[in-house]
From TrEMBL:
It is found in: Cytoplasm. The gene is recF. ATP binds at residues 30-37. Residues 6-341 form the RecF/RecN/SMC N-terminal domain. GO terms for biological process: DNA replication; DNA synthesis involved in DNA repair; double-strand break repair; SOS response. GO terms for cellular component: cytoplasm. InterPro entries: DNA-binding_RecF, DNA-binding_RecF_CS, P-loop_NTPase, RecF/RecN/SMC_N, RecF_2. Keywords: ATP-binding, Cytoplasm, DNA damage, DNA repair, DNA replication, DNA-binding, Nucleotide-binding, SOS response. PROSITE patterns: RECF_1 (PS00617), RECF_2 (PS00618). The RecF protein is involved in DNA metabolism; it is required for DNA replication and normal SOS inducibility. RecF binds preferentially to single-stranded, linear DNA. It also seems to bind ATP. Pfam families: SMC_N (PF02463). This is DNA replication and repair protein RecF. One of its GO terms (molecular function) is ATP binding.
Length: 368
């Protein structure tokens, strides 16, 4: 569901920004510190309920204001746009509204507004801990398989309870066995969904990567978190004594990972920074493409596009993004780095950002 209009209040230096983005490409240009990233941050907030820059909500609420607010109208194929809003208070309280009604949780927003972010920090997908890659997989599975969130929440709860018991110490293997049934049942479900998703995603990824750079040979390997020859039940049973010794559950879907391999070893160790950026972009675009093929349009946020990419690869990335027919927001410090020859048929809007004020730029005015 693309954004038809966006209203941002008190997010960092954006006191009040209201604009109607293109359903296709939106290019936001401005000097360092002008507030470009804050626009993307606001859209991300509306989808995830959190920022991609910091887990501390006070950092993005404008100084000396009590709360920030992001409001949008989401396009839907039939019927009127759907109003959605998120308000975050300095005391941590979060309020989500969809069509005027208070929503139970931010998950309802995430379902309506899938957002993919490509930014310099996206490298963490390769160099960060496995938890970053699990989050990447789980975001995809969440949108791919409607049963997943329930199984995932139940499994997380069971795992947390089990780890609390283990940490307290006084538990025997036989007592633990009684707690493990639910953990195993839901853990198997989580794993099956993740596996099916990665299988589905892999050809998309390979295709996208070959379009960005046909010489890059990279493969994906899903590690489920325990010996792939064993069932989760067998792994949990075999690991009980060790879990008691360690004080936590050492095997299972909580150890899953997505290993990205180049021909000669780990992608992280062999590829250049620019090549890594292409791999990460390909992973994210592949996730988006898969969703689009399922009839679920999404929003791409591309922050600081030129970082680490040469002009040729920037062009390829823009061409690919354009071909997805999604709504895209791209930020850049200068017009030269985003000067891509968008097709005549693509609705491109250029915006200038100056000290937290956003305006449709002359380029955008000529074209609209
Ligand atoms: N809580 C806050 N309240 C008010 N202003 C803030 C707050 N946090 C950050 N700022 C300011 O808001 C601006 C945010 O800029 P932002 O990071 O969005 O800029 P940008 O145009 O993306 O810059 P760059 O090109 O350097 O990435 C900065 O000038 C920063 O000093």
């Amino acid at each position: 569901m693309p954004l038809v209009c966006l209203d941002i209040s008190h997010v960092r230096n954006l006191s009040s920004v209201r604009f109607e983005p293109s359903p296709q490409v939106n290019v936001i240009i401005g000097e360092n510190g002008s507030g470009k990233t804050s626009v993307l941050e606001a859209i991300h907030l509306l989808s995830f309920g959190r920022s991609f820059r910091s887990h501390k909500h006070k950092t993005y609420i404008q100084h000396e204001t009590e709360h920030c607010l992001v409001f949008a109208q989401l396009h839907q194929d039939q019927g009127n746009p759907v109003p959605v809003g998120l308000q975050r208070h300095r005391d941590g309280q979060i309020e989500v509204r969809i069509q005027g009604q208070r929503a139970q949780s931010v998950v309802e927003l995430a379902e309506r507004l899938p957002v993919q972010l490509i930014n310099p920090d996206a490298f963490r997908l390769l160099e960060g801990s496995p938890s970053v890659r699990r989050q990447f997989i789980d975001w995809g599975v969440f949108h791919f398989d409607s049963e997943f969130i329930r199984a995932w929440r139940g499994w997380q709860k069971a795992l947390k309870q089990r780890n609390t018991l283990l940490r307290r110490g006084k538990i025997s293997a036989s007592l633990l066995a009684a707690f493990d049934q639910e953990l195993i049942r839901l853990g198997e479900q989580v794993n099956t969904s993740r596996k099916a998703y990665v299988e589905r995603l892999t050809p998309y990824f390979l295709k996208v990567l070959s379009l960005l750079n046909e010489d890059l040979k990279v493969s994906l390997q899903f590690f489920q978190g325990w010996d792939s020859q064993k069932s989760l039940e067998a792994a949990v049973v075999a690991g009980r004594e060790r879990d008691i010794e360690l004080g936590y559950t050492h095997t299972g879907p909580q150890r899953a990972d997505l290993r990205v391999k180049a021909e000669t070893g780990d992608a992280l160790d062999t590829l250049s920074r620019g090549q890594q950026k292409l791999v990460v972009s390909a992973l994210k675009i592949a996730q988006g493409q898969l969703l689009i093929d399922m009839g679920r349009p999404l929003v791409f946020l591309v922050d600081d596009l030129p970082a680490e990419l040469d002009a040729n690869h920037r062009q390829k990335l823009c061409r690919l993004l354009e071909s997805l027919e999604s709504q895209i927001f791209i930020t850049s410090v200068g017009p030269d780095t985003t000067d891509f020859a968008w097709a005549d048929t693509t609705d491109v809007r250029h915006f200038s950002m100056n000290n937290g004020e956003l305006s449709l730029s002359s380029k955008g005015l000529q074209e609209s």
